[in-house]
Amino acid sequence: MAGENASVIFKLYCLTVMTLVAATYTVALRYTRTISSGDLYFSTTAVCITEVIKLILSLGMLTKETGSLNRLKNAIVEHVFFSPKELLKLSVPSVVYAVQNNMAFLALSNLDAAVYQVTYQLKIPCTALCTVLMLSRSLSRLQWFSVFMLCGGVTLVQWKPAEVTKVQIEQNPALGFIAIAIAVLCSGFAGVYFEKVLKSSDTSLWVRNIQMYLSGIVVTLIGVCVTDGEKILEKGFFFGYTPWVCFVVFLASVGGLYTSVVVKYTDNIMKGFSAAAAIVLSTVASVILFGLQITITFASGAILVCISIYLYGLPKQDTSKLSRQDTDKELKQKLITV
């Protein structure tokens, strides 16, 4: 596997980037929705711009993969213009991801970045359930145990949410939790659905991304018109945009694409460490920027979540080899007895 051939330094680099992107994105998004001075921007336009940038980046990667502009044109004509069924198939995760991204903005407008980061790990059991139902895979006992442990940790974090002292806007933690619950469901379903589509054919990952992002742009534009259409006509599409908002859009655009590449070269244990480290960094940043007050229940829940992520990523034990070894031992014992 590619992940086995990659050097330790490269894996550490991947781990560092994954951690920084995950932690910085949530903290920066929280900052733009609660503390940053100036008029509040429209989150629907930010989601739409993110899809456009992802499409441009995917086109660049496909150009590199095909090796020439002529091959790029042929690939786009074949898989986009002459494949309406495939576009329709990829429109399903496009809609789901659009809902997920908008829910992330709503959740981080009402929940602290650290609380969000911990609670968002519920995507692990959601993805596990979708994997079992949609891909007919099985989970080990340890993985099921870690799933229940993670749910218990999130329950502790949400039992008495940690308070922030430097955020002056009115927040609704219940609305934030509902938003993140919807985002988690969307993340689990869309991720497994996209994986199933990828494995159903030999079509390039970047071609599939282009198909999905084209549908995503259409879906998010509809969301822009329906949700904020009148306000945007009055104030403008880029109303309220600051360098911080542009930074959030950049992280959202690059983060998703980079993570898909990183996953190819790392294993579940490294991804688990990355998620746990992102929780720690988000917590530290929340204490400094937002005046987060750490409680015993929050700390206990966060620790449980970090441990469960690590346990979930441990490789499955090969029971077939164990059973063969046991059988061989029994045969040897019988021969010795005879």
Walk me through this protein's architecture.
Helix 2 (8-34) runs parallel beside helix 12, helix 3 (43-66) packs antiparallel against helix 10 (205-235) and helix 7 runs parallel beside helix 9 (173-199). The protein is globular and about 60 Å long. It contains 14 helices and no strands. It is mainly α and 338 residues long. It is a multi-pass membrane protein. This is Solute carrier family 35 member A1. Keywords: Membrane, Sugar transport, Transmembrane, Transmembrane helix, Transport.
Tally of contiguous helical segments: 14
What share of the residues lie within helices? over 70%
Mean pLDDT: 83
Percentage of β-strand residues: under 5%
Major sheet attributes: none
Essential attributes:
mainly alpha; 80% helix; globular; Nuc_sug_transpt; EmrE-like; pyrimidine nucleotide-sugar transmembrane transporter activity
